[in-house]
Write a structure and sequence with these properties.
Elements: H1 2-5, E1 12-15, H2 19-25, E2 31-38, H3 47-55, H4 59-72, E3 90-93, E4 97-103, E5 107-116, E6 119-128, H5 130-154
Antiparallel strand pairs: 1-2, 2-6, 3-4, 4-5, 5-6
Amino acid sequence: MTRVANLAPHSARAVEVAEDEVSEVLPSWDYADAFECRWPSGGAEDAMTVARALLGPSRSGKRVLAARDVLVAPWGLQPGHQGDALLFPIQAAGPDRVVCGLDDRHLDFRVIVTLSGGVACCTTVVRRHGTLGAAYFAVVRPFHRRLVPRLMRRQHHPHATGTEES
């Protein structure tokens, strides 16, 4: 793949969202972004390994979501961490693609993790509900756009599992 040759090791970059794929996992979405990085050849053999490295229930990830849960409790939103293998419940899993996410009163979201030709891609898809969803995502979005590439860059260790302290 030519895009692998153009992608520096240990870097993550924003890429075009595959609209057909995001519409399949979350119809009527209103926000999506995607980031990709070269994945170590000695590391992941399937998308679940990549998903665990990026979205595994690390101590730091659990702390961030616990703080989020305290802040949003007055609005009756679901807890952020609801998954076992990943931070969020798995919706679908195959060798090349894992989809996880939640539906809540303020927004629905899906995270799509793929691995193909040595390149990992993490796509986030959001469908906001009303003013609460718009306000919530306005606060979360700037952090999200910094966090996802950072998570991808730090996974340059071939045996990263996402369970390490960050």
